[in-house]
Amino acid sequence: MSVDQVAVLGVGMHPWGKWGRNFVEYGVAAAQDALADAGIDWRDVGFVAGADTMRNGYPGYVAGATFAQALGWTGIPVTSAYGACASGAMALDAARQRILSGMCEVALVVGADTTPKGFLKPNKGERGDDPDWLRFRLLGMTNPAYFAMWARRRIDLFGASSDDFAQVKIKNARHGLNNPYARYRKEVTAEAIAASPTVSSPLRLLDICATSDGGAAVVLTSMEYARKHLSSSAGSADPLVKVAAISTVTPTFPNTILEMPNFATDSAAGISRPERGFKQAIGDSAYAQAGLGPDDVDVAEVYDLSTALELDWYEDLGFCGVGEAEKILRDGVTTLGGRLPVNLSGGLACFGEAVPAQALAQVCELTWQLRGTAKGAQAENAKVGITANQGLFGHGSSVILTR
Amino acid sequence: MSKAKLPAVEGWFTMSPSDDTPRPVGADPVALIGTRCTESGTYFFPPERVMSRAPGFSGSELVEVELSTRGRLWSYTDAQYQPPEPFEAPTDPYEPFCLAAVELETEQLVVLGQVVAGVGIEDLVVGMEMELVLGTLYEDEDTEYTMWKWRPVAETTAGGEA
């Protein structure tokens, strides 16, 4: 089931940090950078898709219109998408559909967030019918507690160690050293990680990503528009990067891996487990759309909410067999210079999570990697890149870019 | 004056002795309440009461069942920092607690729960047998809010020899 491609004509980001300003400001800055990168005037955009943020009141829930208004109303249609960490990919998919259906030629996708200090938590109020509220109230189950449960499984099933997890952080910190968009740009030692306090055993503070402010934007166009545009005007889209796949699949019943914010897994007592689990299915769908497989991938941006989770992704995306992630990490396969460098941006380890911007930031980074214009760590001659992320309530995404 | 005991969440677990439901002799004092889709045989926890979520079984009847009160530890962690609101810390100052994900054999599902106070990370091992007990989530002036908790089954706790 190969799907037609659309072009990534421009990308832009506002640096990640803890700036404490309105999220709209980051989104607008990223959008303007993406438009400039594409060499496209805002008035030529035919559709805006915004990735929503829960933490910024009404404007956050209607991000598409919020950004369209901030950039100056032009009368174009908008949509807003919420899919937790996959929000950006859902917005991107909406834009792709508009283009592939012929309803517009140029679409702008924007995600931005402002996050408070500390654990991500539900909005205020008594909400006894909201599982996200209930898991804090009844269990005290924070996001890192779920990450820790999964990390413990790696230790138990595959003999992974805290030092393996630390090696992910060390690698990503090195990758992000010179990335101007990254929030944390310094080397981290195994000693510093081991000395950082335990948050939820076995994960320490430096194993877990922070929460950040940031914004990212992508300009998508039809392939035909991109070719005409590039032959007649400026812009930075050389070589032209294409979207070969956007996967936003949901789990298949019974989903027997514990998902945030659930109290329990589905039961496999009556209906047998699907052959491929949820996270594997996210990548499977992307590969199927692109007509590509794990062996074709040159570079990847995966969601390292925790160091251990990056290792899960290696296996879920088929970069190695189950239980082999620690080995390919230690062999340098996923480090700059290796066969398949992962998180050359520095990943969430260097960025911290700005939820609605994150899936788009991954696309920005891979676009630069495929163009060969990354300002930080740059892969050599990468032709195919894949992203992966996951969020609450059965959301996840994977995007494949090619050139 | 002793405090009233109320479940921290309504309809998710039985609570003895204040629970009025007649209970079989020898039954555990606390059990999770789930529902079972009679046609597919799948279970739901928290109890699904609207419609079976098993695709293709939307017309199936859902019956209320008590879930197994013992299972094997699937994974575990702890909360070294106080979780944010709406969590209510039972003690001041805050005391870290463990969290367990326990796999129930009959139901073939994994259920989360806090681990009873006094059990530390070093006492837990994946695969060990755990049992459900009634515990206190938090208290206010006149009410104790109860909650299910997991506890290692005595025979399999580390206890020094393991």
UniProtKB/TrEMBL annotation, chain A:
Thiolase N-terminal domain span: 24-222
Gene3D superfamilies, per database record: 3.40.47.10
Annotated GO MF terms: acyltransferase activity, transferring groups other than amino-acyl groups
UniProt-recorded name of the protein: Unannotated protein
InterPro entries: Thiolase (IPR002155), Thiolase-like (IPR016039), Thiolase_C_2 (IPR055140), Thiolase_N (IPR020616)
Domain Thiolase C-terminal: 283-400
TrEMBL record, chain B:
Domain ChsH2 C-terminal OB-fold positions: 64-133
InterPro entries named among the record's database cross-references: ChsH2_C, NA-bd_OB-fold
Protein's UniProt name: Unannotated protein
Lineage: unclassified sequences, metagenomes, ecological metagenomes
One Pfam family in the UniProt entry: OB_ChsH2_C
